[in-house]
Amino acid sequence: MKFITLGQSDIEISRIIMGTWQAGKTMWTGIDDAETTKAMRVAFDAGITTFDTATVYGNGHSERIVGKALEEVRDRVVIATKVFAHSLAHDKVIKACHTSLKDLGTDYIDLYQIHWPAGSFGSKKIPIEETMGALNKLKEQKKIRAIGVSNFSRVQIEEASRYGQIDSHQPPYSLFWRHEEKDATPYCVRNNISILAYSPMAQGILTGKFGPDHTFEEGDHRAKNRLFYPEHYPRVQEALAKLHPIAERNNITMAQLALAWVISHQGTCAIAGARNAAQAIQNAHAGDIKLSEEDLVEMDGIGRSVTDHLDDNPVLWKW
Questions:
Q1: Residue 161's closest CA among 182, 132, 127, 190?
Q2: Phi and psi of 113, rounded to 5°?
Q3: 174 φ, ψ to 5°?
Q4: Closest to 115 measured CA to CA, from 228, 190, 196
C-alpha cells in the first residue's frame, strides 16, 4: 500500500481509503453489519489504514459500525467523518462533532469534513466563516486533527481556506466522472490540498458487473446515478468493452483498474466501498498497482468518450 501526507497536516493516509456509506444501510440494499465489520478488519490487515464515514450515513449507524470494527486498532488508523449541510451553524457543528465522537467511540477525529456546502438540500446558507470558526475551535481543542471539505467548487474551497487550513477535498471522481479536473483539481494541487475521490468506480459501473439491461432493487440510490440514464449508458457499455483488454493484460480486475487510474493522479486517493472481505482485499491490492503511461493515455481517451457527452452539473445523481 502506498501512502501520502494529508494536505499540510502530519497525518499519513493510505492511497486506497475504505468508504463506509454502505455500512449505514440507508439508500443501499443487501447490507449485513457482520459482513461490513469483517470487511473493515480485513481491509486493515491488507494495508488500508484510512476509513471514511459520515453522520448522515444511516443517521450514525455507519459511524457506530466503523468505531466498533476498528476499536482495537484505533491508534493505527485514520478515521474521517463529515458534518452534514443542515448542521453548519457554529453550535450545531460542535454538537454534531460530539455526537460523532460518541458514535465512533473515540476522543478525536482525524479528519472532519463539511459534507456538502451550506444551502445544499434546502439547508440554511450559513456563512463559511461561521462554520470554519467552529471547526478551528474543535481543532484547537484537539477533538479533530484536520479539516476537509466535500462536494465544494474551487471558489468554495478558496473561500473556506481564507478562514482556516483545508487539508482535503472529497469530490466524486472516476474515469467516467471528471468534472473535478476542470477547476478544483489544479487549485488543490497548487495549494497542497489532498483529493479524496469518492465513487472512483462510478458506483460499481467500472467494475463491469452491470450489464446493458441492469435494474436496481427498490431503495438502491444508484438508480439515480446519471451515468445509468439512457442518454449515457450505451456509451458507458461501449467504453467498458474497451477497458476490459487493459485490465486483462495487466492481470487485474476492472475494479482495480479503475482504482489504479484514480490514484495515478498527483495527491489523489480513492475511496472504495466494500460489501464483504473479498472486495476489501481486492481494493487494497489496487494500492500497489502502477499503470504504464501507454495504458493511462489509452484509458484517458476511453473515459472521454463518456465524459465529453456529460453536462456541467458536477452532482453525480439526479435527485
A1: 132
A2: -120, 145
A3: -160, 175
A4: 196
**C-alpha–C-alpha distance, residues 277 and 150, integer Å:** 27
Integer-rounded Cα Rg, in Å, for the chain is 18
Domains of the chain: 3-208+256-289 (3.20.20.100)
Of the candidates 135, 160, 131, 133, the one whose C-alpha atom is nearest the C-alpha of residue 147 is 135
Annotated active-site residue in 57, 173, 198, 233: 57
CA torsion, ordered 263, 269, 272, 276, to nearest 10 deg: 90
Cell 487550513: give the residue: 165
Q: Is the pTM of this model over 0.90?
A: yes
Task: Give me the amino acid identity at 52.
Answer: D
**Angstrom distance (rounded) from CA 199 to CA 272:** 7
Active-site residue 198, yes or no? no
CB 4, CB 267: distance < 8 Å: yes
Cell for 291? 499503470
Q: What is the pLDDT along the chain (319 residues), one digit of tens a residue?
A: 999 999 999 999 999 999 998 888 787 778 889 999 999 999 999 999 999 999 999 999 999 999 999 999 999 999 999 999 999 999 999 999 999 999 999 999 999 999 999 999 999 999 999 999 999 999 999 999 999 999 999 999 999 999 999 999 999 999 999 999 999 999 999 999 999 999 999 988 999 888 787 877 777 878 888 998 889 999 999 999 999 999 999 999 999 999 999 999 999 999 999 989 999 999 999 999 999 999 999 999 999 999 999 999 888 888 6
C-alpha span between 28 and 25 (Å, rounded): 5
**Apex 296 CA angle, 292 and 301, nearest 5:** 150
